[in-house]
Amino acid sequence: MGTGKRSLTTTAMALACAVTILSAPGVAFAAPTPTPTPTPAQPPSSTPASTKDLEAVRKKLDTLYHDAAVATDAYNLAEERAEEQSTQIVGLARSIVEGQARLDHLKDRAGAAARAQYRSGGLPDEARLMLSDDPAQFLDGAGRIREGAQATKGLLAEMKRTQEDLEQYARDAAAQWKKLDANREAKEKAKKKVKKQIAAAEKLESQLEKEEKKRLAKLEQQAAYKAQSAWLGSGVLDEISGKASAQGKKAVEYATKQIGKPYEWGAEGPNTFDCSGLTSKAWAAAGQGIPRTSQEQWKQLDRIAVEAMRPGDLIIYNSDASHVALYIGDGAIIHAPRPGRTVTIAGAGSMPILGVVRPEQ
């Protein structure tokens, strides 16, 4: 995993977790400089954390960052849906304005017809025809009556349909407003959760000594290497031989150019990314729109066997589809890992794989 400037992102950095770790025996934290005393050498106020203790810290941080990723997905989904609903409301408002203008026009036509009848004395057309002595005029007038009756009937039916459309538009707009409010609330709730969890995780890491942070980073690398080695040892790479499509190559090219940029929850470029922000933008650059979140990418895109994947495909991680990466070939991925990390290349098997999806239609 790459290193880089810290940015927001995580969820479930529970206070209980922090308390548990902070109280773990043998974990060393920065302490104030002791007051000088005349006695010779004083024993250190704390002892370096054991590998076992640091491994426990690593696992707890993994859990916290995983939960943060879940909250980030919830935030991104709520934001995406809120944007869609806002667009729909604007469209409905436009339809209501156009429909009202149409209804006003139809009412004007109906009013004009009523005024014409009034000017003719209010006598029904049938009666006026019966009083005519000219058969030709009678027949000609009868045809006009039928046409006029049909036109009037059509005008009234069109007015009725337009009025019904307006009522439906109003109902739809009200429903969309209700959904929009719910998603705004969900978005704010997820936002608060992410910020709280990230702050808790960063506080937890900040209390480790400098040397312990280095050892912790090494343990993270070892865990990723062990998982990748096991994945490659299964022989899966021997079966993967797919070549990237033209779109897949463009997606990989885009993602490669983002290497080194910081992770930031809720971000989709151009300067920072979260995991699904990177994959969605990579495929947008390739000319293919895909869902914004890793969970929706897993739900909506076509699933393929791991052995059939090719560069450009998306690998979904964890049982809850909380992380996603872009496969680039040779058993490697490009992804935005988590807060405090940057977009980087990693082993495709360094995390638990849920499955693979292909964005191309």
Describe this structure in words.
- With 361 residues, this protein is an alpha+beta fold.
- It is built from nine helices and six strands.
- It has helices at residues 15-22, 51-119, 125-130, 135-206, 210-233, 236-239, 246-257, 275-285, 294-300; strands at 302-304, 314-317, 323-329, 332-335, 344-347, 353-358.
- A hairpin with a 5-residue loop joins β2 (314-317) and β3.
- α1 packs parallel to α4, α2 (51-119) runs antiparallel to α4 (135-206) and α7 (246-257) crosses α8.
- The two termini are 31 Å apart.
- Residues 1-45 have low confidence and may be disordered.
Count of alpha/pi helices: 9
State Rg. 34 Å
Spatial ordering of strands, largest sheet: 1-6-2-3-4-5
Amount of beta strand = 5-15%
Mean of all residue-level pLDDT scores: 77
What global shape is seen?
A: elongated
In whole angstroms, how far apart are the ends?
31 Å
Low-confidence blocks of residues: 1-45
For the biggest sheet, the summary is:
6 strands, antiparallel
- Tell me the helix content: 55-70%
Strands, count: 6
Order of helices and strands: HHHHHHHHHEEEEEE
What structural category characterises the helix and strand content? alpha+beta
